[in-house]
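Extended Data, record DUF975 domain-containing protein
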Amino acid sequence: MSQFSSSSMQPLSVGNVVTAGARMYSSHLKTYLKLALQAHLWILVPIYGWAKFAAIAGLISRLAFGELVNQPESISNARNYTNSRLWSFFFVALRVSFLIFLAYFGFIIVGAIIATIIGFVLGFLLNTIFGSTGRTIAAILATIIIIVALIFGLVWLYSRLFISEIPLAVEENTNGGQSINRSWNLTQTSIWRIQGIVLIAFIVTFPILALFSYIPQIFLLRLEQGSTAYTIVYLISWILSFAGGILIMPFWQVIKAVVYYDLRTRREGLGLKLRDRDV
């Protein structure tokens, strides 16, 4: 019987979601890292390899969800299921990326309009108090408003789409578009919780990101591009970043599975199951 069964799991707090994800990740470390390595090797192949990466990410989440509901599934069976939806996973990832891309420019435009109006009003008011310095202060405040609006808007959208591929990985008779809609519906009352979960999960993974991605980039800044030293350090940096991605990717997919489980528990009750399996 799985130690992460639905009989022992109740609606979780923000911290407990990350804790449960970390426990499951460590308990299946070898399996998840092997799958993550396969996924990252596939990502080197354009289009088809990217679809395989997305499908393997869904595979990890499916395996994790099976553990949560006490219905562990063999890797081969789970892989057959996710491979049958290979291109659906790819188009989910593509659609989500496109939505975030559009939202990025949309939030910038809206933020710029609001900031311009506020900046004009503040510039007029502060100009009467501080003189020409008031316009500078107003410009700084307007810039801050744009940045805050952009960050808040993107984080809000990301929270709504956080589990967009998980229903596709778990629920039978669900296509890519329905999977995204399912994420949108399940997360509508839990945006702040998801943001808290993402923040804590990011803090947990930050040391790996710093060691494998950020710190090597610092060394590159001190070297001349095109030099032998730069090429060697760049290659080492790329390898470390690749390894860091392998370490972190399964953790996030497990966290998504736990979030999906928790949201369904809160909204639909216990007794969840992998819908494509006879129980």
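Summary. The chain has ten helices and no strands.
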